[in-house]
Amino acid sequence: MLDYSHSPYAKSLVKMLADKGDGQVLNRDEIIEFVDKSTNLWLTKDFQMEAELEFVVMATLAALGEIEITLNSGKLINQRI
Predict the structure, then answer these.
(1) What sign does the CA torsion over 64, 61, 55, 75 have?
(2) How big is the CA angle at 16 (ends 15 and 19), to the nearest 5 degrees?
């Protein structure tokens, strides 16, 4: 079974969401930021890791049923549904 209890990346995301309160969302600009003078580099605000790796963490949390992800297209990623 997947376990995120030892992942500082997952715990940071869960904490950010919990700090916002029930029923609230985290938007992209609260999680990642564009690196100036780059062609297409986005890094996380907390750990400065690439956004693609952060999405792997988010996908794992969604697979565990801890979070829901809504893409720009409106598609919902959530294991519980």
Answers:
(1) positive
(2) 80
Q: Write the CA distances from 63 to 32, 46, 60, 67, integer angstroms.
A: 21, 22, 5, 8
Mode of pairing for the β-strands spanning 32-34 and 42-44:
antiparallel
Confidence at residue 3, expressed as pLDDT on a 0 to 100 scale: 87
pTM: 0.86
Indicate the average pLDDT of the chain.
Answer: 92
32's enclosing H/E stretch is strand 32-34
Measured in degrees and rounded to the nearest 5, phi and psi for residue 19 equal -65, -25
SS3 content of the chain, % helix, strand, coil (to 5): 35, 15, 50
The alpha carbons of the chain give a radius of gyration, in whole angstroms, of 13
